[in-house]
Write a structure and sequence with these properties.
With 543 residues, this protein is an alpha+beta fold. It is 60% helix and 8% strand.
Length: 543
């Protein structure tokens, strides 16, 4: 046990073993080789059914608090790494702990700003509004009279998390060493991802930057985002605008209206802005007195590039429309595969897996269950999706669950269908198609320019011996240039024909015999290029 280097770590390990024993999780104790850390008087007890394990494990995490609650919350977002039943159970984890004393709060704030609390704030409530494993929130007033919420980090919480993460690495290594059959879950990767996530969680400046992004995106929207007060924010203290309101679960009226707002907000976050709240559960949504909704807690935020956004749109559209072929192709387009898979078999399995959802009315479809089933299937095929894409799937499932909890009549597919229809219309527009064409042309140009360098890399990696005469090299270069030129001409030809067809559809003026003049010009150019291309191919065959 090389990682267990201090008395504190050994004590924490005993605590972990004791809590697992209390929850009758001796199955896990056996696998983790923790029996020596339990009292000899403790009788081994095993849960009666495997279905009890996720619940007992969640209760154990709540007892252990600290990093274990945060680990469970992170795992609830990663149904691609753990079984669905565990992910769903861990999403119930409650991060509510006993608050720490005001004297410590005052000391931390004054240490961070090197000023007395009385000079920083006109008023400061001694009792916290909420307390969690990482920090607690106090209501206060700035010197200019602004009411704010001040989030203060727990004393020495970084050292507590450091100890727990060290132990988690140790336990993960034991599992991978003694139980090869569990290697598919890649426990070391899970702990590494948790460590990276924790670094952001313990740095309030990261959360403040996330809030700023949302604040700017939604400043002209119905959704309210609290403003960050940067002069009163550090790594351990976050000061933001106070939101006067109630949790949405505490409000009985207008729930369908609020659910619609949240879904529309989520679509904007994912499809327009590319930055989304990765854990939009009801506890993070407040209803203000003016019936406006406010989003809180931006510790877990996902970011997606425009390219990933396009691919997610394909998955989203295919699921809403029940297009299983497009869904299979979209998932394959997204994947990072460690080993070769049978693509046709994957398509068949996907179709079979999702048949139970599409054999019934789409309006009755459980979107979340379908998403989880997809993740289960892709895990079987050793696919590893980008982390932000998995967060996106989890956020989608959370929004659907959120809607159903507040409004029993809520249907995610029905609510999103108008947006999907608009998206499909947008994809038919000339501007969108031209944008795709331009993007592909730039990509082709980049690949063409980088082609020689890529060849060099391949030759350096492999033990390839090439013995060619100078004439052979010149001949190879000539044929390569010819092929690339023809490929480029073909792409340009296709672009001209598509452009001409779109302009005809748009009926741009001036018209000649009912056909736009610009379309006629493009068609003439396309004919000339096509004629020269055919002529070139025929001359080469004669040669």
């Amino acid at each position: 046990m090389s990682l267990i280097s201090t008395i504190k770590e050994a004590s924490r390990l005993r605590q972990i073993a004791t809590v697992l024993a209390q929850q009758e999780l001796f199955l896990i104790i056996d696998k983790l080789k923790l029996k020596r850390h339990i009292s000899v008087t403790q009788q081994p007890k095993y849960v009666k059914t495997k279905s009890e394990i996720p619940v007992r494990l969640r209760l154990a995490m709540e007892d252990l608090s600290g990093a274990f609650i945060k680990l469970g919350q992170l795992l609830s977002l990663r149904a691609d790494l753990i079984p669905k039943e565990y992910a769903q159970e861990f999403s119930k984890l409650q991060d509510e702990v006993k608050p720490f004393k005001f004297e410590k709060v005052k000391q931390i704030i004054e240490d961070e700003f090197e000023q007395p609390l009385s000079e920083l704030f006109l008023k400061f409530d001694m009792e916290p509004m909420a307390a969690a494993s990482v920090g607690q929130v106090h209501k206060a007033m700035l010197n200019n009279g602004k009411i704010v919420a001040v989030k203060v980090q727990r004393p020495n919480i970084d050292k507590v998390f450091e100890t727990d993460i060290s132990l988690l690495y140790h336990l993960a290594s034991l599992l991978e060493k003694h139980y090869p059959e569990l290697k598919d879950y890649n426990f070391m990767q899970i702990v590494k991802e948790f460590e990276d996530y924790t670094k952001n969680e313990l740095d309030y400046l990261c959360e403040a930057r996330n809030i700023d992004i949302f604040y700017n995106n939604f400043k002209d929207d119905q959704i309210k985002i609290p403003k960050v007060y940067w002069n009163h924010t550090t790594k351990r203290v976050l000061t933001m605008e106070f939101i006067d309101g109630k949790k949405i679960t505490e409000v009985a009226k207008n729930r369908p209206f609020y659910v619609k707002q949240i879904v529309e907000s989520y679509i904007k976050q994912t499809m327009e802005y590319g930055t989304f709240h990765a854990d939009p559960h009801p506890g993070n949504v407040f209803v203000m007195p003016n019936h406006r909704l406010a989003l809180l807690d931006f510790g877990i935020v996902g970011h997606i590039s425009s390219e990933l956004r396009d691919k997610f749109e394909n998955v989203f559209v295919s699921m809403i429309n029940g297009d299983r072929d497009l869904l299979a192709e979209s998932l394959i387009d997204l994947q990072i595969v460690d080993e070769d898979i049978n693509i046709e078999q994957f398509k068949d399995d996907l179709s079979s897996h999702l048949g139970k959802y599409y054999d019934t009315s789409l309006k009755k479809m459980n979107f979340s269950s379908a998403l989880y089933d997809i993740l289960t299937l892709t895990r079987r095929y050793k696919m590893k999706f980008p982390t932000n894409f998995v967060l996106l799937i989890k956020a989608t499932a959370t929004v659907e669950g959120f809607g159903k909890e507040l409004d029993p009549k809520f249907n995610f597919v029905k609510t999103c269908k108008p947006y999907v229809d608009k998206l499909e219309e947008k994809r038919k527009s000339p501007d969108y198609l031209f944008g795709i064409f331009k993007k592909n042309m730039w990509k082709f140009r980049k690949d063409f320019v980088n082609f020689p360098d890529e060849i060099k890399k391949i030759l350096k990696r492999g033990k390839v011996k090439i013995d060619l005469e100078d004439t052979d090299i010149k001949k190879f270069t000539f044929y390569l240039d010819t092929a690339i030129n023809r490929m480029a001409a073909g792409i340009i030809l296709a672009g001209l024909v598509i452009g001409a067809a779109l302009i005809i559809q748009a009926e741009l003026k001036p018209l000649i015999f009912g056909i736009p003049l610009l379309s006629i010009v493009l068609i003439i150019i396309a004919v000339i290029i096509g004629f020269n291309l055919i002529k070139s191919i025929r001359e080469e065959k004669r040669g």
